TrEMBL record:
Organism: Leeuwenhoekiella blandensis (strain CECT 7118 / CCUG 51940 / KCTC 22103 / MED217) (Flavobacterium sp. (strain MED217))
Catalysis performed (reactions): epoxyqueuosine(34) in tRNA + AH2 = queuosine(34) in tRNA + A + H2O
SUBUNIT field: Monomer.
Name under which the protein is recorded: Epoxyqueuosine reductase
Positions of [4Fe-4S] cluster 1 binding: 185, 188, 191, 245
Length: 312
């Protein structure tokens, strides 16, 4: 076995040992196919108020501008599918936000991973990324053979569906590279048909500014009136296009204790969410992704849902 193959094999074994669901590797370079797609998406204002998506256009498409001398993108998936779900008569929270904020959990794992690589291989320069930098995570994961981009624009994997986080190490080490897998969406349009706000405007194209996740997390202004009867009881995020995807029937519960929710999150009814106080918000959502909306944002979302119910 040559050195490249040896290092590649070791890195993939280490990823499993650290609890990652899978690991794929691709050659760092310019994402030629994604460039016109991203440009078109931005030109059509499908990012809404997410102006940060317009920044660092070149860096988003070329990791060698983020990590000088980068040779490889090591893409990693971490399962977050929960064992237990919220009660039925509740305002809903996206499953990725049930437990501790994934940025903290994954960043720690990646730091340990990079240290282990350096201990085992020697001086390797690189950086860890968890969706908070201009890196096209899904494109790299697809290039690394970890799945294909589905019609809902999420990465889908045959054996496990799509309820996982994507992260990467971009390093200056040459490795053996994986090849992309084929698209297995076929003629299925389950996600397009089920989207409450018709945010999937074309197969494989999501208008971010119409998505319930955007309304409940990213949008700082008031949620538009036209969404009033389309929110499907989501107060933070939305999982509809994933819940209906046939590939997610293969989802299995994660084994990361930090992703387990506080009991109140699962037990609260709509009435209890309506009566939420700042104090209880801080207790339930300590170190949670939900803190991003702040108490005032979550209250705004709950009030909007409540008004929609009253209008019915």
């Amino acid at each position: 076995m040559n050195t490249k193959a040896k290092y590649t094999s070791w890195i993939k074994d280490k990823a499993k040992e650290l609890g990652f669901m899978s690991c794929g590797i691709s050659k760092a370079g310019f994402l030629e196919q994604e460039a016109p797609r991203l440009e078109d998406w931005l030109n059509k204002n499908r990012n809404g108020e997410m102006h940060y998506m317009e920044n660092h256009f070149d860096k988003r498409l070329d990791p060698t501008l983020l990590v000088p001398g980068a040779k490889s993108v090591v893409s990693l998936l971490l399962n977050y599918y929960p064992e237990e779900r919220q009660r039925d008569d509740s305002y809903k929270i996206s499953k990725y936000a049930y437990g501790t904020d994934y940025h903290f959990v994954i960043k720690d794992k990646l730091k340990g991973f990079l240290e282990a690589i350096r201990e085992h291989i020697g001086e390797v320069d690189g950086r860890a990324f968890v969706d908070s930098a201009p890196v096209l995570d899904k494109a790299w994961a697809a290039k690394s053979g970890l799945g294909w981009i589905g019609k809902n624009s999420n990465l889908l994997t045959k054996q496990v569906g799509s309820f996982y986080f994507i992260a990467e190490l971009i390093i200056d080490l040459e490795l053996e590279y994986d090849t992309p897998v084929t698209d297995h969406c076929g003629s299925c349009t389950a996600c397009i048909d089920a989207c409450p706000t018709q945010a999937i405007v074309d197969p494989y194209v999501v208008d971010g500014s119409k998505c319930i996740s955007y309304f409940t997390i990213e949008l700082k202004n008031e949620i538009p009136d036209y969404a009033q009867d389309k929110m499907d009881d989501w107060m933070f995020g939305c999982d509809v296009c994933q819940d209906v995807c046939p590939w997610n029937r293969f989802s299995k519960p994660h084994n990361e204790p930090l992703f387990n929710p506080k009991p109140k999150l699962l037990e609260y009814s709509k009435q209890e969410w309506k009566e939420l106080t700042q104090e209880v918000f801080s207790e339930i959502f300590k170190k949670s992704p939900v803190k991003r909306t702040k108490f005032s944002g979550l209250k705004r979302n709950i009030d909007f849902l409540e008004n929609a119910a009253d209008a019915d």
